[in-house]
Specification:
Structural class: mainly alpha
Number of helices: 6
Distance between the termini: 22 Å
Largest sheet: none
Radius of gyration: 21 Å
Oligomer: single chain
Number of strands: 0
Order of helices and strands: HHHHHH
């Protein structure tokens, strides 16, 4: 039996953890929608914009599907299956593209949230939040993509050849 690289173990566990997090995130979203803050808060403005609600609903649906995929991919990686390595690469590419789209959406939504702020300050807040969203959203997919394409990980996920028959 081949020795499993540490990257497979780490990313298998991380896939399981992120998968669970993606699956419970709708519960947090429901809780946030139920919070009633006094006055005209940024959260109230955010949840009153129909495009924000639409983006949240799409993100949650994609997140649940991604969470289920990550759970399966995490188990597959821990078993050193090549389909899980390839699936993790596909997930990383999709997740990276979604992170870019999310940072653009965050910029748009921050315009709603920062409406009452001074223009210079509002632009700085939108930029910081959008950049943070992009960096945060790309961190895991880029690491996953890097490590799943390493030669030792590729070799460890290849099927073992059948044992030779002694005649």
């Amino acid at each position: 039996m081949r020795q499993r690289p540490v990257a497979i173990i780490i990313f298998g566990i991380l896939n399981l953890g992120f998968g669970l997090l993606y699956l419970i995130s709708p519960l947090f979203n429901l809780a946030m929608r139920k919070i009633k803050l006094p006055g005209q808060s940024a959260l109230t403005a955010f949840y009153s914009d129909p495009s924000c609600i639409a983006w949240i609903n799409v993100s949650l649906a994609v997140g649940v599907v991604g969470g289920l995929a990550l759970l399966a991919l995490g188990v597959g990686l821990l078993l050193s299956k090549n389909w899980a390595r390839i699936g993790s690469i596909v997930f990383a590419l999709f997740s990276g593209a979604f992170a870019v789209a999310a940072s653009v959406a965050v910029w748009r939504f921050m315009e709603t949230v920062t409406r009452g702020m001074p223009p210079g300050f509002a632009a700085a807040v939108r930029t910081m939040v959008s950049v943070f969203s992009l960096v945060y959203g790309l961190a895991y997919p880029l690491l996953l993509l890097y490590f799943m394409t390493r030669p030792n990980v590729i070799a460890a996920c290849r099927p073992e050849p059948p044992p030779a028959l002694n005649a």
